[in-house]
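Thread: "does anyone have the structure for this chain?"

Original post by V.I.:
We have the sequence but no experimental structure in hand. Need at least a predicted one for the grant figures.
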Amino acid sequence: MTPYRRKVNYYETDQMRIVHHSNYIRYFEEARIDFMDKIGCNVMYMEELGLIIPNIDAYAKYLVSLKFDEEFEVRVRAKSFTGVRMEFEYQIYRTSDNTLCAEGHTGHCFVNTDHKPISIKKSHPDIYKKISDATKL
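Reply from O.Q.:
Generated one for you, tokens below.
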């Protein structure tokens, strides 16, 4: 699958023009939303159906700093999926020299509009299949 790409914005950096560590988790989220869209699971549409996907875990390991105006890509992999929970892995590379800058993971679950955990295998089998197929890639 095509990685998510963009450049570092100035407001995401500190006075030394280095990306603030909190933004890497945001980059993970941007890439995850892009990934979900690419597999046919638009997050806004899912929310309209009453499916909410909260984050229940996030971890990032910082290896090499990204700086203002550098282009980077986030490679996303759906690591595990049960229909109730899913986990993604991420690697962020600077595109100019393919340097691994950060890596991490996030964990998620599925809840309804009352914030009660649900299994989408029965409630939304079409979405379940798309995510399940993507996890096998």
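V.I.: this helps a lot. The CA atoms of residues 41 and 74 lie 19 Å apart.
O.Q.: and The mean pLDDT is 97.
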